[in-house]
Specification:
The protein is α+β, with helices and mostly antiparallel strands. It has two domains: 78 residues, ACT domain (Alpha-Beta Plaits, 2-Layer Sandwich), CATH 3.30.70.260; 89 residues, 2-Layer Sandwich (Alpha-Beta Plaits), CATH 3.30.70. It is built from four helices and eight strands, in the order E-H-E-E-H-E-E-H-E-E-H-E. A four-stranded antiparallel beta sheet has the order 2-3-1-4, with helices on one face. It has a four-stranded antiparallel beta sheet with strand order 6-7-5-8, with helices on one face.
Amino acid sequence: MRKQLVFAALGHDRPGVLEEVTRLIVRHHGNVEASRMQRLGGDFALLMFVTAPEDRIEALRKAVNELHFVKFDVLTRLSEATEVQEETAATCAVTVMGADHLGIIHEVARYLSEQGVNIESMSTEVTAAPMSGAPLFSMSAVVRVPSRLKLADLREALDFIGGELNVDTQVFEAEDSPPD
């Protein structure tokens, strides 16, 4: 039987970081089931969902926790599969774009939370606008919408929030999602 481990690691970016982490996982007969990695500023952030044999999972967790000795901040958690509490009507993509300012992520996340919408993944970025160089915010998320919430209502509410925040919002059903 395989057990699940989720861990996050953050440290100074340099060549070879991923190779070191995956070597450690393989050494403990682990398999990376899902991961997200990103260079943020001068740091490298890593989030991984790993499975390993039941008799190896604690040794793997200990080894991952010891990454802090090579200048990483590490957080680990043994994970268990959970059942989704409420039936979801749709998986959707949500995008937000506009001039960057404080509170955009918070206001969108607040509304989604109030409606019982679960955020499966999200990425945000601030870049320089092509002509003016002004900070331009963009967000892309995949969400699970509860069956009691109509997609038309979700779109309308996010359009309203976007108007209040002076940003453009869009909601795409999974089959209508824009390409990555």
